[in-house]
Amino acid sequence: MKHTLFVLLILGSLVVNAQSFVTTDKLWSTMIGPVYGCKSFFCESYFTKFSGDTVVGGIHYMKVLRSEDQQMQNWTVQGFIREESNLKVFYRDTLYKRECLLYDFGCKVGDTLHLDCVCPGTGYHVDSIKPIETEGVIRRYFYLNYVENKTHEIWIEGIGSKWGILNAGGWMHCKVGGGENLLCFFEAGIKQYQDPGFPNYCYLSPEIINGISPEKNVQQYNVYPNPVSRELFVRSPQLNDGDYTLQLYSAKGELVKTECLEGGTNLHRIDVSSLKSGVYVLRLISASGRYTEEVIIKE
Q1: C-beta of residue 254 within 8 angstroms of C-beta of residue 279
Q2: pLDDT tens digits for 194-239?
Q3: How many CB atoms lie within 10 A of CB 27?
């Protein structure tokens, strides 16, 4: 069940086509832990996608799947989601067996939304709606205020809450000691959103945060050109230390290339001319550690 909405919205002098939220070509990465200070505290992330029609309680949904490994090889059903033609999105988790309003992308400025998927009874006032370009796409940004303490909530049309896809309506307001935050968003294999605090990653783990920070990686390795169309070069003195395994994953977690690198050279060439345009994850694995970097391949 893949919805296509052709709702025409006019904001000022700008005409915006409303974008469907519940589709099968989207992938989210959500960061868990303190929203700030992840380089010094425990943080990790997980992936979310929608797939397959299903009927629960006589209502048609799509499955919400979750994966906690970087290669996205293992997925579990987290809940069920559906979208109505009026741009309302409803969610039903596997634990409480109840349906709740998760988003209302058809709301208007001045509306009060009662969103209780995360915090029952949570009320939000729609403060403003603005069209903003995100990665070359015009999307509506919804600015909401939590009624009780004026805490802000931000939705991005077609992407969801900045607190994370399933956290619309209160994760940071009713949870203590941390929360979740949207890290990356892909659509049709192309990255459309990146958390500005982590420009090099769409997956976090204690190993990455505590042992292989983005700054340290950049100093040790040089991966170029990026974006790339034909040959990708990996240069580093570290390649002299021993044999390495190189892996290249698509944005969906599919392993598309594996090569063994013998020690004794600090430059390696990778032919990517046969791969489709999109964002890929490059991994170098050795006995002493691993290195991860996103690579953009364009035709």
Answers
A1: no
A2: 887 776 678 876 555 443 333 334 346 778 898 898 899 888 765 5
A3: 22
CA distance 48 to 26: 8
More confident call, 206 vs 26: 26
- Rounded to whole angstroms, what are the CA distances from 254 to 119, 173, 257? 35, 36, 9
| 131, pLDDT greater than 80 | yes
38 & 158 share domain: yes
111 occurs within a structural domain: yes
- Print the domain residue range for 261: 220-297
Q: Nearest CA to 182 among 205, 170, 198?
A: 198
- Report how far residue 49's alpha carbon sits from residue 65's, in angstroms, rounded to the nearest whole number: 5
Amino acid 153 reads: E
For residue 134, what are the CA distances in angstroms to 4, 97, 158?
Answer: 20, 35, 11
Q: Give me the amino acid identity at 103.
A: Y
Spatial separation of the C-alpha atoms in residues 44 and 105, rounded to whole Å: 29
Task: Find out whether 99 and 90 touch, Cβ atoms under 8 Å.
Answer: yes
Short-list 160, 229, 153, CA closest to 192: 160
Does one domain contain both 57 and 105?
yes
Model confidence at 96, pLDDT cuts 50, 70, 90, reads low
Q: Which helix (H) or strand (E) holds 191?
A: strand 190-194
How much is the pLDDT for 93? 87
